[in-house]
Amino acid sequence: MRSDQSTVPQSYSAPSAIGGTGHGSSAHGAGPGRAAGPVLVGATIAMGLMAGLFFAFDVSVMPGLAAGDDRTYVTAMQHINKSIENGMFGLVFTGAFVATGIAAWLQHKAGRRQAALWAAGATLLYVVALMVTMGVNIPLNNDLAAAGDPSQIHDFAAVRTHFEGTWVAANMFRTALCTAGLLALSRALVLHGRFSRFGR
Q1: Is 149 helix (H, G, I), strand (E, B) or coil?
Q2: CB 101 within 8 A of CB 123
Q3: Distance between CA atoms of 81 and 140, rounded to whole angstroms?
């Protein structure tokens, strides 16, 4: 053996590579940190889908229906409200809340405090959107359904007047809340990526 050869077995350097405790890594990364990124991406997509859905009503569905007569308006909205009650909508509607909340928790557990705060803010914004939905939009949808079959409705104008103005205003508010939530999650994604690259 040469005198300049290292006396430390090569295998002793392996734990730093295997355990990921070298430069730029974190003790939190093996657990919550590994799932934090994918969950945050999923939350951002779900929030974006909800913002897009509400926005579509704001700029196309409701203005289009507003141009029609009262009978067409009431009939179309009854059909829309019934059609949207499907598994795909339910998955995204509830998934946006669940995924965003979990994303905030995972970011916190992984030590990414700033990203966690932005994700938590997005969760709060979506909770307000849910409250608006449950407190305003759904009750109005139920009232519209309770008006009965269009062939049995005698005063379409009264049914439409009770529904239209409040529902549209509430939906615009939901759009603003979910758009703000999307921006907050996008910021959380940027911070997550920065932390992953530089450890801060």
Answers
A1: coil
A2: yes
A3: 10
Q: What is the DSSP code string of 102-116?
A: HHHHHHHHTT-HHHH
Give me the residues of the chain with pLDDT under 70, please.
Answer: 1-33, 196-200
pLDDT of residue 193: 86
pLDDT of residue 6: 46
The string of pLDDT tens digits covering residues 54-72 is 999 999 999 999 999 999 9
Query: What's the CA gap between 29 and 110, in Å, rounded?
Result: 6
Distances (CA, A) of 82 to 3, 4, 85, 89, 118: 83, 80, 6, 12, 35
pLDDT for position 80: 98
Secondary structure (DSSP) of 75-134: HHHHHHHHHT-SHHHHHHHHHHHHHHHHHHHHHHHTT-HHHHHHHHHHHHHHHHHHHHII
- The whole-angstrom separation of Cα 124 and Cα 101 is 9
- Please tell me whether residue 4 adopts helix, strand or coil conformation: coil
**How far apart are the C-alpha atoms of 118 and 124, rounded to whole Å?**
10
State the pTM of this model. Answer: 0.81
Residue 33's pLDDT is: 64
Query: Quick check: 153 and 15 in contact, CB under 8 A?
Result: no
CA distance 141 to 22: 57
